[in-house]
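Researcher: Quick test of sequence recovery. Tokens follow.
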């Protein structure tokens, strides 16, 4: 064509972006009882009494109400019945028959193996697990009750609102116990094994021997292999001060390397690093790895070398210290003041002595929202770590490959479990390199990794691929495959079916960072269509420098007007015209490449493809994703060999 093409004006359907505002919350019932009179019914009042506690602790449990009774009681003014009814019906509406009573039993922690103590009854109500009388082994509701100690109901309800405590002797003793259980040399956790003969990273902070009454701090440079356990710090740097600011953070640079190998005063370090040193000493370890002080920050060669080692640094660390609650390295994470945690819904309980107690109820596991969880670089630190101590908003949390996320004392919140860490086989040299029994397991894991990772923020967008290099390095070994610009060679066609759910926010693509067919060429959240039930496109040749496919392509001008409504386009950028003109190339009209099909309903398929423009002789740039609801479009379309545009150099 003699001139640059504009976006064709014929009407096609745009894929509607999801509206987060319309999505319901995780599991908490809607607060529709705000205007309901607060008239607790007899069973709910009885459940939070000494007699009720006896029933909750008994094998037969506490009989609450049937569905019909619970609904009627809620209408009459019992807000607890309404709470229970809404929670159960949200997930088990069809399974709760009108005359089937709900039976509650007491439990102390989600980490315990039984509901009621087989040795002695629990001294108070810690948690309520509800099951139907017809299915006693199937829990359909879990309630976490909280009450203040000095509240009239506090003698019955023993789970307390959380006042932040992450550094008391009791908390550290509980953490130490979990660490010892996991790393016990006689009976260690099988899935948490790490080399007892770990080689230290290139540089670590030596914070002193545990038995030293006056420990010092210095940077240790390991010019030869040194074997010892070490901890790592995962934290938010926060905003960098201006170069002209009077106070600058102490960093490892070429001009500070010699000074740091001498004694370092604790006060010269940022507060989060000070806190990490105190934790390291308190846990009885000598060495700590901190990126700001163990990577030469003004040396590109050293940065590249150490970033390539991130996987082994975090994988081989004895424990990762996560300063999750801190937004800035200057804030620290041990002494933060945070408001106590209360569930949002409170209920009055009339007591036998005439007083009114107040109980707070939550029917969902707590999902913390930490500043650290929003930082792109820390995602792989979480994924690769064998063991983590997480300094959270309210508690010190523990997680390893055999123990789910939990408070170290077991007396606080029950936590929603995040995406699992990499499979334990990564840590076992003798393990077979597989994850799951099917390729679909691995594809699902990778798609989940990409979505969760891209939801985070990077201070430098050019780190889009670098910040997951540790994960891809480990998975290349585990899966015996090659990762090319964020896509796996084995499932390349499947993984081309990515899209941007928030395209309205995206203004430009970085083709020098990654080719247009890679999600890494864009910033922001990435999701995937699929999985593809059939793959129509085939790989002819795939290297870092070129991706050649054999596929079917349709030019938009060949599609009849009445068929345009069956094509749903999701462009990668908000301004597709700018995309067409990027680089000053003479571009042809948009074309469609069929990747494959997905099953919608029984016997019904829809096509998934790429929206492309030709930037050369059968060299194509991706500009979006397409869904075809009418597969007859592709009848008669001939196969051809094409090349997807490589990354732009220079």
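Model:
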């Amino acid at each position: 064509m003699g001139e640059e093409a504009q976006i064709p004006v014929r009407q096609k359907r745009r894929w509607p972006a999801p509206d987060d505002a319309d999505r319901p919350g995780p599991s908490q019932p809607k607060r529709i009882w705000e205007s309901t009179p607060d008239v607790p019914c007899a069973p709910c009042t009885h459940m939070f009494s000494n007699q009720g506690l006896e029933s909750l602790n008994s094998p037969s449990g506490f009989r609450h109400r049937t569905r019909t009774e619970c609904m009627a009681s809620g209408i009459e003014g019992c807000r607890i019945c309404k709470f229970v009814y809404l929670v159960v019906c949200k997930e088990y509406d069809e399974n709760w028959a009108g005359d089937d009573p709900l039976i509650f039993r007491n439990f102390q922690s989600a980490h315990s193996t039984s509901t009621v103590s087989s040795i002695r009854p629990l001294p108070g109500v810690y948690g309520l697990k509800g099951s139907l009388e017809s299915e006693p082994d199937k829990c359909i509701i879990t309630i976490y009750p909280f009450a203040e100690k000095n509240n009239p109901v506090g003698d019955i309800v023993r789970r307390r609102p959380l006042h932040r405590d992450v550094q008391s002797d009791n908390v550290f003793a509980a953490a130490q116990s979990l660490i010892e259980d996991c790393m016990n040399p006689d009976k260690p956790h099988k899935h948490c094994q790490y080399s007892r003969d770990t080689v230290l990273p290139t540089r670590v902070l030596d914070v002193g021997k545990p038995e030293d009454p006056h420990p010092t701090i210095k940077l240790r440079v390991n010019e030869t292999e040194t074997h010892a356990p070490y901890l790592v710090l995962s934290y938010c740097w926060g905003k960098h001060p201006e170069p002209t600011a009077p106070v600058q953070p102490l960093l490892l640079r070429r001009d500070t390397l010699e000074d740091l190998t001498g004694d370092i005063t604790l006060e010269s370090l940022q507060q989060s690093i000070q806190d990490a040193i105190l934790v390291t000493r308190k846990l009885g370890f000598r060495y700590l790895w901190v990126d700001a002080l163990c990577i030469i920050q003004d040396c590109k060669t050293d940065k590249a070398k150490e970033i390539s080692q991130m996987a082994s640094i975090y994988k081989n660390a004895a424990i990762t210290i996560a300063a999750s609650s801190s937004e800035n390295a200057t804030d620290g994470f041990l002494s933060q003041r945070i408001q106590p945690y209360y569930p949002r819904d409170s209920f009055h309980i009339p007591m036998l002595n005439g007083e009114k107690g107040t109980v707070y109820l939550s029917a969902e596991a707590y999902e913390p929202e930490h500043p650290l969880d929003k930082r792109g670089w820390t995602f792989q630190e979480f994924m690769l770590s064998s063991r983590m101590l997480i300094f959270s908003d309210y508690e010190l949390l523990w997680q390893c490959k055999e123990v789910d996320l939990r408070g170290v004392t077991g007396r606080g919140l029950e936590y929603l479990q995040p995406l699992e860490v990499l499979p334990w086989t990564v840590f076992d040299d003798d393990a077979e390199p597989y994850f799951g029994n099917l390729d679909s397991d691995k594809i699902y894991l990778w798609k989940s990794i990409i979505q969760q990772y891209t939801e985070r923020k990077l201070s430098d967008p050019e780190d889009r691929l670098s910040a997951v290099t540790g994960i891809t390095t480990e998975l290349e070994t585990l899966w015996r495959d090659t990762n090319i610009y964020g896509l796996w060679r084995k499932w390349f066609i499947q993984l081309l079916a990515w899209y941007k759910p928030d395209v309205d926010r995206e203004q430009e693509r970085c083709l020098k960072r990654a080719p247009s067919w890679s999600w890494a060429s864009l910033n922001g959240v990435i999701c995937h269509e699929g999985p593809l039930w059939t793959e129509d496109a085939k790989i002819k040749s795939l290297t870092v420098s070129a991706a050649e496919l054999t596929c079917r392509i349709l030019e938009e001008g060949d599609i009849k007007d009445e068929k345009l409504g069956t094509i749903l386009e999701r462009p990668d950028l908000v301004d597709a015209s700018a995309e067409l003109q990027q680089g000053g190339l003479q571009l042809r009209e948009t074309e469609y490449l069929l990747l494959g099909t997905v099953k919608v309903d029984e016997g019904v398929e829809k096509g998934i493809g790429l929206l492309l423009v030709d930037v050369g002789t059968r060299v194509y740039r991706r500009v979006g994703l397409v869904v075809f609801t009418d597969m007859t479009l592709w009848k008669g379309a001939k196969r051809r060999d094409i090349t997807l545009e490589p990354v732009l150099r220079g």
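The two ends are 27 Å apart (CA to CA).
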